[in-house]
């Protein structure tokens, strides 16, 4: 499977509410870095911790998580940069509609690092009450 296919299928797994399928694309020593200077910024290490984060995020949505729509995907060597929209209805009744940029770095055909950028102000404003 190509790097492009892995990225598209990994994001598709999240959109489909299939976290185990997403986690299968990850390297055992994966690092997930949520960039920024806000309450959601962190570095998460390992599949189990990433799975726990996905469950926490998914629990805020009516349908179990955001739906992702890939806009642009650029692959160079062992890295891919993807921009996409994340949307969905939150359990608090608010609409989630966010822009993302993620960098996927691969080792031995698996995702070894994800660096995520998103509109943290939007997340904070719609996730609150």
TrEMBL record:
<feature type="domain" description="SnoaL-like">
    <location>
        <begin position="10"/>
        <end position="114"/>
    </location>
</feature>
<dbReference type="InterPro" id="IPR032710">
    <property type="entry name" value="NTF2-like_dom_sf"/>
</dbReference>
<dbReference type="InterPro" id="IPR037401">
    <property type="entry name" value="SnoaL-like"/>
</dbReference>
<protein>
    <submittedName>
        <fullName>Nuclear transport factor 2 family protein</fullName>
    </submittedName>
</protein>
<dbReference type="Pfam" id="PF12680">
    <property type="entry name" value="SnoaL_2"/>
</dbReference>
């Amino acid at each position: 499977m190509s790097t492009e296919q892995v990225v598209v299928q990994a994001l598709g797994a999240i959109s489909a509410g299939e976290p185990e399928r997403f986690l299968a694309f990850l390297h055992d020593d994966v690092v997930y870095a949520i960039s920024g200077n806000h309450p959601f910024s962190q570095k998460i290490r390992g599949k189990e911790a990433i799975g726990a984060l996905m469950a926490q995020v998914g629990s805020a949505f009516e349908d179990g998580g955001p739906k992702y729509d890939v806009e642009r995907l650029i692959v160079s060597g062992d890295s891919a940069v993807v921009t996409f929209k994340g949307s969905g209805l939150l359990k608090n009744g608010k609409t989630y509609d966010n822009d993302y940029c993620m960098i996927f770095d691969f080792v031995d055909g698996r995702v070894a690092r994800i660096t995520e950028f998103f509109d943290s102000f939007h997340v904070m404003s719609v996730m609150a009450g």
